[in-house]
Amino acid sequence: MAGVELDDILQQAERLRADLDGGDELPRVQRNFQQLLDAGKRLRTGAPTTNDGAQVKASLLLSSHGYEIPQISDRLKTLASAAQSLEPLDPICDTDIEGFLRNERENAIIAVLEEQKSKSFESVEKAYWKTRLSEWEKEKQNILGKLIGTDGSLNFTQDFSTTRPSNSDYLDSGLKANTRSLMDAWEVGYARQVYVYNEKILSGSIRPNFVDLCKVTAEKMRDENILSLWNMVKCVIDARISSSEKSVLGRRLSNRVITEIVKQARRYLEDAYKEYMRKCVQARLQTAKLGGSLNALNLVESFLKVKPPQVSGHSDANWAKLYFCLRCGDLEAAQEIASRIRGSTPEISGWIDEYMNNGTLSPNSKHQLQLLYKRTVRNGGDPFEIAIFCILGCCDVMESHNEIAEKTDDYLWIKLSQVCVEKTQSSHSEVLTLSKLQAILADYGESHFNAAANPLLYFQVLFLTYQFEAAVEFLSRFPDLRCHALHVALALHEADLLIKANNLHDALVSSKQSDQSQLTTVQRLNLPRLLMIYTRKFELTDPREALNYLYFLRDEKHENESLFMQCTSELIRETGDYALLLGGLNPDGSRRPGLVDRYCQGSTKELITKVAQDTESKGLFEDAVLLYDLCGKYDNALKLLNALLSPLVPNSDQAHSDRVRLKELAANLAHRYRAMSVELSTDLQSTFYILLDLSMFFDQYHLGHYDAALDVINELHILPVKSETVQEKVRAFSSYSDEVRQNIGEILLATMKMLGARRKQLRSSSARDVAAVKAHARALLTFAGMLPYQLPGDITSKLVQIEVDML
Fold first, then answer.
1. pLDDT tens-digit series, residues 451-480
2. CB atoms within 10 A of CB 233
3. Are 656 and 702 in contact (CB under 8 A)?
4. Which member of 9, 162, 194, 608 has the lowest number of beta carbons within 10 Å of its beta carbon?
5. Domains of the chain: which residue ranges?
């Protein structure tokens, strides 16, 4: 090495490097110092290279595409650290254009991820607080609803204890809502009036008007819309209905009832419009210039000053006054205005007189009016005159009168005034029947009346056009209005105007082809279903209020069974509050009355039996035992209790928690039945007491008290002690019930194990005692082999093994 110059070594190194750079056979491979050091050590020591071949191949592959492993490794570490923190990458030298662009691209990706992360956290936080605020708002409304007093003001002295008022103090203290009640203010107010209504019926007093009671609630809540709803319902229901039809369907389809209902619907619209005119006039007294008494004529004239009609063409003021007098229902004022009209229609005064006296025109007068209307009036251009002729003579029934019928109420009033119920000689196409009006409104549909945004308006449209059931069903779709819908249905039901579905499982509203008539279309409402949907909200927290509503079904039948009984049974099973609703047993065995006694009126035991049967069919056997015991069906109680005790008898109290509870229940029943000298079925009673004694036997066995356990089983005389009694015990075995026989294997095994333990204790005793134990065991084994009952295979083998061990 001494003869070689440093310049020569440098030149040789450069040539080697040039050869490597210029060669095409192998790609250039770069290694860092640590890799070179590791490779040198392996070559020096001759150690095998585990993954060296794979790494070399990877390096060759990546380097052939221009990627260097050291650079890639460092870059990946940088990206991994950046991905965790989502921080921008460190800037690189400005002269590295490719690296700069790659760095900018990666920074842009990281910025987008960071932005989306921030937006996601912000969105989640907003959704969280929105949900919490919504829940708090509902809770505030619930608390405020519970604090509403009887006068509609907040009452902070109300009792929020969990105890409920008794029947005697209900009216004095009002409906005391506990802290868990789910009833809102409207539901509490209606429930109070329902209680008052039922109390009057149960006490034999004069039945109050249910609608008036509901109006009291609306007045206390100070809701003008709901108060108008009840005013409408009251006006329609108060129709003077007199029909010889006994069924509700026959009554609803009769001409006389339809006529009265339509008349009352029209009267409600007239009274409501008169009140509307009065409010308009009082709001602008200076413009109205109201002078003298506030009679209908002065009111109409003042109203026309406040709101002059906006109609096209020439309009006679007298025709406008006459229309508004008819619109507010004052026919006397209309007669006075008609007497002022002269000129082309002198007959109008006589027609108004006839309309006022009879409520309609005679066929002759109607024919004259229709002829005059077709000749001159229809093309006369005065919209008020046209509307009056159409109302009096039922002309152009398809005309909407848009110029003067500005609101839905005006349109309904005009159409109801044109409805013809009685038979007429005119062709069907020229007569507007109630059925045809209902079809016209159905064609308009809910969207035309914006029913989703204003459900009370569409409810009024349906209700005033004799579609009571459809109106109730529509209103019940809105959870906030369901309480009003139900109570309207109850009001119709109490007025014998509600057509109810025949099947409890029908849809909420259904119809039958046989129910239809040429005059109107009727539907059937599933009242029990609507009522149960309503009470399901609060039946668990307020069962007594739910029971008050179910009392409305006392006269309804389903499959020849009282619907009140069926629904009350379901209510009791759902709540599980048997003590409150059904009462309990006193120590002397007498029954303590519950809430249902007030409503059942002597048939409480029948209801309890129904609840017990339904509870048993649902698999709630322990509850069924208590219910059968409560209603005096002692045999049913014992039968179920025997079936429950039988599989638990061989177990220990520690192995099965239900065993302790059932033993305590069985002991209480046994003690009370003996004290009361209850007459029971001999077989059931015998099985019951045997199962109790067997439970005591296994208790002693599991505690290790073998002598006491053997004494118990010997006193039962189920198993033979000697070989001579085997035949007798086998014959007696067939007389036992299944509940006892299915435990015979466990009884034999436990007894044999105790005899085996005694045999071990007697090894040093006299031969007589040992022989007695062996004879007892042999008798048990013989008894097991002769039984007409298939024992489990493992039981038989264990018995034989124990008997062999005694030898």
1. 989 999 999 999 999 999 999 999 999 999
2. 24
3. no
4. 162
5. 69-147, 273-432, 542-614, 633-711, 717-807
